[in-house]
Write a structure and sequence with these properties.
The complex is a heterodimer of chains A (346) and B (302). Chain A is mainly alpha-helical and 346 residues long. In chain A, 76% of the residues lie in helices and 1% in strands. A two-stranded antiparallel ribbon of chain A has the order 1-2. The longest helix of chain A is centred in the middle third of the chain and has 38 residues. The N terminus of chain A is likely disordered. Chain B is 76% helix and 0% strand. Chain B starts with a helix and ends in a 7-residue tail after the last helix. The chains are: A mainly alpha (346), B mainly alpha (302). The interface between A and B is large, with 63 and 51 residues.
């Protein structure tokens, strides 16, 4: 870690004299953020290894839990998993494998962890991506309207609803929807990505996936949009007393134009960072939503890994999940700079 | 001769000032109707959970001593019906409140302790210490908390203490960031400079000046964190990482999923635990927001 820190410390002194100041500060900014993301990635890799080796708890004991396994069999298992090797040797193997794109071998699936993750990542991106886009659009739109008409009935119902949804456990909302629309009314399938044994292709297949996605997406959106609404509302409220809005009105702009062309773009800036900061929470939501709806993604895989328990698989999902979130945050930092001209000039 | 008397008087003045401030804070808090309602409901729920052994002995939760049919819809005998083992859902619900609340409070305590200490240190110290602490805070802010909590609790092994540790260790970063910025604000004020000039050390400045200044903020944040800790507890229990023999709201919902109560239409087993979580978490949020606006007047009316 000290290594990586020094790169970050070097950056501020790295003033390129022959380069225009703007490019150099952009480089500095990107390098600083990249350094930060890199340190976080290294910490994930370290934590992914040491959490499973140093913390109290014996993986083989938990693996054998509830099964009749003799002491000799447990020893053989330890040998197979390489748990008898010195810690450093295990760590070296973990690192070299990681750089070869390997994350160990799942002992419940008898398959490399990487293969399992590769087949599950698509459905998770589809589900969380759709849910994220819908929640951002919905949350920001409702949030700016609520702020603009602060204290109105619309504002009160929207903030009230948002606070209630904020207090709802994701998985329970999923269970409720399952109870109502899956079990009771039977409008939507209760689980999976497609109907089991389907032979459809093309449009009918897409339609089938959409039907399976509806309930999980609604669940995620309901829980997530509320935070975006609150953030957007708060940050627009902060802009509303600004003088430039008075100027815009004095110019004779209509109230709608003042809002959409002047106030909202400025209020969006803090909101964007917060949206990306909540991505980790979205991933957490994926674990429970996918579990409730048996959605064959990374979240459901995490659940299966922890219920086995299958530690190499759990370690793999942890490393992959965390890396995705860290990289998304890095891109958010870069995007933020593009969006905020003040940072570019600085 | 007069020195002890003067000191005694000064303490009285300070105590009186503190009392007066407490009354002011209470008045401001009580004027927030949503916050007051939340507080009243919370006091009621906590009292109910504390007193339940007087009304329903633990034996009602014993699956070997049930008399009612399984998955029975609500009736006069069992106002909220029975679970798949034939136990009264109402009794489970109130007994479950104990674990959910205790874990919520305990995890929040862990989270606040780490957050306050790390946050003050990151704001107070400079140089390498600060750089390292900031990196650690950033890491815990970004990394998906639930996934890390799952890793921690499945490695340590299921149990109530495990869940407390897992939630506490993964949820402190937001508090640390808040405390750090407050520490920076406080330390830029002249009275801290005066303390330095009088020869105060790091320990004195942190415990005597910074800590009292960040405490109100931490307190308001605590109330908000209890709510999310209760949700986290229910989520981890739902995923099967809780103590299998103890009953909590999350554990009830887990058994609802496992026994197919949701797809089977047994709404009386799915609804109550979730509604209980929503009500309690909402109340904590309302109280927290009210406290926040008392402490930070610029937030008022948001």
């Amino acid at each position: 870690m000290s290594n990586a820190l020094s790169t970050q410390d070097l950056v501020p002194g790295d003033h390129g004299t022959d380069e225009p100041p703007r490019a150099s500060s952009w480089l500095k900014y990107t390098a600083m953020k990249a350094g930060g993301a890199l340190i976080s990635l290294i910490m994930v890799v370290l934590l992914g290894f040491f959490a499973f080796r140093i913390l109290p708890g014996d993986p083989v004991r938990s693996l054998a839990d509830g099964r009749r396994v003799s002491v000799e069999q447990m020893d053989i298992l330890r040998e197979q998993l390489g748990l008898n090797d010195p810690l450093l040797a295990q760590f070296w193997r973990y690192l070299t494998e990681l750089f070869q794109g390997q994350l160990g071998y799942s002992y419940t699936y008898n398959e490399p962890v990487v293969n399992l993750i590769a087949t599950r990542i698509g459905p998770t991106v589809l589900l969380t991506g759709t849910a994220a886009i819908i929640s951002v659009v919905l949350g920001l739109w409702l949030g700016q309207r609520a702020a603009w008409r602060r204290g109105s009935l619309f504002d009160k119902t929207q903030t009230g609803l948002a606070l209630v949804f904020w207090s709802v456990p994701t998985f329970w909302l999923g269970l409720l929807l399952l109870l109502l629309f899956g079990g009771g009314l039977q409008w939507f399938p209760t689980g999976g990505l497609v109907t089991a044994g389907t032979t459809e292709t093309g449009l009918p297949l897409i339609w089938d996936v959409i039907r399976h996605m509806t309930l999980p997406v609604i669940t995620m959106v309901a829980v997530v949009y509320a935070q975006y609404l609150m953030v957007m509302r708060a940050s627009l409220l902060e802009e509303m007393t600004s003088d430039y809005l008075m100027t815009a009105r004095a110019k004779g702009l209509r109230e709608d134009e003042v809002r959409t062309k002047h106030a909202v773009p400025n209020a969006l800036l803090p909101t964007v960072t917060l949206i990306f900061l909540t991505l980790g929470g979205l991933v957490g939501g994926a674990v429970t939503v996918e579990t409730v709806f048996s959605w064959p993604g990374l979240g459901y895989l995490t659940f299966q890994a922890l219920s086995a328990p299958d530690f190499p698989l759990l370690q793999g999902t942890f490393v992959v999940f965390s890396s995705i979130v860290i990289l998304m945050n890095f891109f958010a930092d870069l995007l933020y700079r593009v969006l905020d001209p003040r940072l570019r000039a600085a | 001769m007069s020195a002890p008397a003067a000191q005694g008087k000064r303490i009285n003045v300070a105590a009186a000032r503190r009392r007066q401030r407490a009354v002011e804070v209470w008045k401001e808090f009580a004027s927030n109707r949503a916050g007051l309602t939340g507080l009243i409901i919370l006091v009621f729920v906590i009292a109910l959970a504390a007193l339940i052994p007087l009304f329903a002995p633990p034996s009602v939760l014993d699956v070997t001593q049930v008399t009612s049919p399984q998955n029975d819809p609500p009736s006069l005998e069992n106002p909220l019906g029975t679970d798949p083992a034939g136990r009264s859902v109402l009794a489970l619900l109130i007994w479950g409140a104990r674990i959910s609340l205790v874990v919520g409070f305990a995890a929040t305590l862990v989270s606040m302790l780490i957050g306050t200490v790390v946050g003050m240190a990151a704001g107070h110290f400079t140089g390498a210490t600060q750089a390292v602490l900031m990196r650690i805070i950033d890491f815990f802010l970004v990394v998906p908390g639930l996934v890390l909590a799952i890793v921690l609790s499945s490695v340590i092994g299921p149990g109530v203490a495990t869940i407390v540790v897992a939630i506490g260790v993964t949820s402190w970063a937001g508090t640390a960031r808040l405390v750090r910025s407050q520490t920076l604000t406080v330390e830029s004020r002249p009275y801290i400079e005066r303390a330095w000039a009088l020869g105060a050390g790091d320990g004195h400045v942190i415990t005597k000046h910074v800590l009292p200044a960040v405490m109100p903020l931490v307190l308001a944040n605590t109330t908000l964190t209890v709510g999310s800790a209760i949700i986290a507890e229910s989520t981890l229990s739902f995923l099967g990482l809780g103590d299998p023999s103890s009953i909590s709201w999350g554990a009830m919902l887990k058994s609802a999923l496992d026994t197919g109560a949701a797809t089977g239409g047994y709404w009386w087993y799915v609804m109550p635990p979730g509604l209980a979580i929503v009500v309690v978490v909402l109340c904590f949020t309302l109280v927290g927001r009210a406290l926040e606006s008392v402490i930070n007047p610029t937030l008022r009316g948001r």
